[in-house]
Amino acid sequence: MNPERWDKIKGNVLDNMEVEESDSYKSDETDGAEVEFIIFKSPLGRIKLEFVTKPLIIDKKTLYSNRIGSETKVDYVYSDTEKTYRLNFYKWDEDRDGWSEIDARNFSL
Asked: How far apart, in whole angstroms, are the C-alpha atoms of residue 51 and residue 82?
């Protein structure tokens, strides 16, 4: 997935579906990931698409001690220039009253 393909998918949804909400935010939980989402009604029900942009992890440092009972800490080093992209699919679950993730392997393009 890349930003150009996301723009194409988003444009297709905006043109052909009834959009309920579309927005973006910056997540502090996942090391500054930028999340852009769109919620729309489809023949399958309410669908939510999330496009997540995160800095690329270029190194992982594990800090530990050989003492019994000590904790292990992992520090990640992120790239300033390179990004990773991911597209998440969710379907509204009426029984749970929340979003359920759809496995992307079920789609064929």
From this structure: 16
Give the number of other CB atoms < 10 A from CB of residue 47: 20
Over residues 17-44, the pLDDT tens digits come to: 999 999 999 887 667 789 999 999 988 8
Q: Could you give the CA distance from residue 56 to residue 63 in angstroms, rounded to a whole number?
A: 21
Query: Is the pTM above the cut of 0.70?
Result: yes
Range(s) of the domain holding residue 26 = 3-104
Number of domains in the chain: 1
Distance CA 51, CA 104 (A): 13
Q: Is residue 28 part of a domain?
A: yes
**Two tokens at 58?**
């270029």
∠ CA 29-54-82 to the nearest 5 degrees?
A: 145
| C-alpha–C-alpha distance, residues 102 and 48, integer Å | 10
| pLDDT value, residue 30 | 60
